[in-house]
Amino acid sequence: MARVVRSTAFRRTCTRRGAVAVAAAAWAAFAASSRSPGDRAFFSIFGGAMKPAGKQIPPAEVVGAALRSADGPNKQSTAWEVLDTTRLPNQTALVTGANSGIGYYTALALAYGGAQVLLACRDPKRGEAAKKAMEEALQDAGRPAPTIEVVELDLSSLSSVRMFTTTFLKEGRPLHLLCLNAGVMAIPKFETSRDGFEMQFATNHLGHFALTRALATRIAESAPARVVTLASEAHRAPNQAYDLSDWPPSAAKYGDWRAYQQSKLANILFAREFSKRVALIPGGDLVSSNAVHPGVISTPLGRQQVLKGKVLLGVFQDRDEVQGAATSVFCLTAPQVEGVTGEYFRDCAATEPSEFATDAEAGRRLWELSEELLVKEGFFVRDAGEEG
Ligand SMILES: NC(=O)c1ccc[n+]([C@@H]2O[C@H](COP(=O)([O-])OP(=O)(O)OC[C@H]3O[C@@H](n4cnc5c(N)ncnc54)[C@H](OP(=O)(O)O)[C@@H]3O)[C@@H](O)[C@H]2O)c1
Hints:
- The chain is α/β, with parallel strands linked by helices.
- The protein has a single domain (about 75-375), classed as Rossmann fold.
- The protein is about 45% helix and about 10% strand.
- The protein is built from 14 helices and 8 strands.
- The protein binds NADP nicotinamide-adenine-dinucleotide phosphate.
- NADP nicotinamide-adenine-dinucleotide phosphate binds next to α6.
């Protein structure tokens, strides 16, 4: 698939101008129907981004009718609205960090659409609890439960990534939708992963890189397929290049917030570089790879420290978790995004990332150095003549 330049029509579809129309139409659809208290809770989020949506799911037809009369998804849209009436039969999806926050609602929306969803979690107990809650919500919404599976995957451990990918590939399963969502933020002190890498680098970038690198051929074989990487607007601040002179990131240059920003910049560089490389694999021209900023949502992401975590997300929160999952779900499922690859999305619209995130040479170097680390760690052996 060639990298698609955003068309005027695409921009128009993704514009924010539909916000008022969506809200009005949704309210009209709601008023015209006699829905359960659960639906009432859901529609209350049209009235304010901060109100919790609960885990109830409204019938897609109600939301779909509202959306069809509007311009398209926007900042206030929830994952369900974005999904609209899209159905995902025979689609296999994998969401990392699916037991909490944005990943939870992304996985739930995909299951609601009918996909078989793998919840990739580092703690299987937390994964099983999320699965149970999702199944209850789906049942409540009157949707036959698709298969939801919990798989153990600790992204900060290359052996855990290897164990998962080996099993997955051996089972011969397809993979159509991959959401690289898991993350940690602003760990106060320099901490290392089991493999000895700085923890935010290891979890947010290297683990996802290893996972995608190992599954790339299977994703291409399953195409059409989509890969979405959770980045952040934090990649812009401070506006500086990815620091490849400090590779892998060392204790000497460690700053809690800086390490997070750099890892999120790496996420965009990775998503763009993958969009080019996957196109070279047979079938890969029908695989898209985009990065997203989900908004600012008060999730447990800030658990590592009070001030730069909980307080920051709480103060700047601009939407709830269901809305936070919308841009991921949009990039994974929306017909408007078909053929769009190598882009950065926020509020369900393609937007320009920082100049450093579009540095193709930095993306290429990051990819190569990450591969070298994996080879060094024995994660994979490069075949003679193999291209990255
Ligand atoms: N919230 C925001 O405002 C915001 C803004 C911009 C970008 N983002 C990005 O959105 C993504 C999701 O964040 P969130 O806000 O939903 O946070 P969250 O609720 O804390 O979810 C993070 C998920 O990642 C998992 N995780 C952490 N370390 C892991 C590891 N080593 N292996 C596997 N899974 C691991 C967590 O598992 P446990 O529950 O076991 O810890 C959890 O399921 C992150 O990539 C974040 O950078 C968030």
